[in-house]
Amino acid sequence: AVVSTQSGHYGRGSQTEHTYFSGTRVERDFVEAPSQMLENWCWEKDSLKMMSGHYKDGTAIPCDLLEKLVSSKLANVATTTCRQLVFGLFDQDIHTRENADTAQCFSNAHSLVMGNPAPQGTNFAAQFGHMAGGYDAQYYGYMWSEVYSEDMFQTVFKETGVLSPEGGMKYRTCILQPGGSVDAFDMLKNMLGRDPNSDAFFKAKGFA
After folding, report:
1. What's the pLDDT at 2?
2. Mean residue pLDDT across the chain
3. pLDDT (tens digit, 9 = 90+) per residue, 84-113?
4. Cβ atoms of residues 57 and 172 within 8 Å
5. Taking a C-beta distance cutoff of 8 angstroms, is the pair 105, 93 a contact?
6. Where are the alpha helices (DSSP H) in 55-176?
7. What element of type H or E holds 2?
8. In 3-state terms, what secondary structure has residue 160?
9. Tally of CB atoms within 10 A around 85
10. Which of 63, 118, 132, 173 could form a disulfide with 107 if both were Cys (CB 3.0 to 4.6 A apart)?
11. Taking 70 as the threshold, does the pLDDT of residue 143 lie above it?
12. Measured between alpha carbons, how far is 107 from 147 in angstroms, rounded to an integer?
């Protein structure tokens, strides 16, 4: 999944008039969507068969094991989703105050979402690099991007097939090629044929 995620960042060849708008130079709350979308191929049988095999003889992964692997996608999904909510709320909290006790702010967000405070004597924020690496006051974009990524995957690739050249070309033309020269919302509308929505996101999380 990590390889797929990072490939989504580094494989974004754009064709824009100005280099400023190429690659990942898109809105912060869309920038993660392409990389997040590629993670889906790690949970699809057709693609898993192509990228897996026994380490000694290359034999295909058994069907029963493949079924279990795919079904494990939803393991701990509620916890990981809540974790992202904690990070996003913490980020907004400390960036809407003149002064912030980061340890207390994080514990407050943790209590609100998880139902219990962060462990005493810890300060997660001290090693939360995103807060000083370009995502400050914008960390919510991770989950916002995931809504878009699931909509693209479920609407285009689940319809045409996860290995479909047609779906791939649509993605390349509508999303990768324009880069930041077109607003993300408009790129999504061009790819989906409608306004994006959160239906696929909730379905992917097992909530619908």
Report:
1. 47
2. 90
3. 999 999 999 999 999 999 999 999 999 999
4. no
5. yes
6. 63-71, 77-94, 102-114, 141-152, 158-160, 165-171
7. helix 2-10
8. helix
9. 15
10. 118
11. yes
12. 26
Residue in this structure with the two tokens 């077109």, named with its chain if needed: 182
What tokens does 173 get? 């033309």
The owner of tokens 């914008």 is 138
Amino acid symbol at 116:
N
Tokens of 179: 């880069």
Q: Is the pLDDT of residue 162 over 70?
A: yes
Residue found under tokens 């701990």: 76
Longest dimension (CA), the chain: 61
129 phi and psi angles, rounded to 5 deg = -60, -25
Residue appearing with tokens 């001290």: 126
How many Cβ atoms sit within 10 Å of the Cβ of residue 193? 11
Fill in the DSSP letter of residue 28: T
User: What angle do helix axes 184-192 and 141-152 make, rounded to 10 degrees?
Assistant: 20
175 near 187, Cβ under 8 Å? yes
**Eight-class DSSP state of 194:** S
Per-residue pLDDT at 12: 53
Reported residue count of the chain is 208
Exposed/middle/buried for 190, CB within 10 Å: 0-12, 13-18, 19+? middle
DSSP state of 18: S
> Taking the model in full, what pTM does it have?
0.87
> Rounded mean pLDDT of 21-33?
85
Query: Measured between alpha carbons, how far is 74 from 80 in angstroms, rounded to an integer?
Result: 10
- Cα–Cα distance for residue pair 44/66, rounded to 1 Å: 9
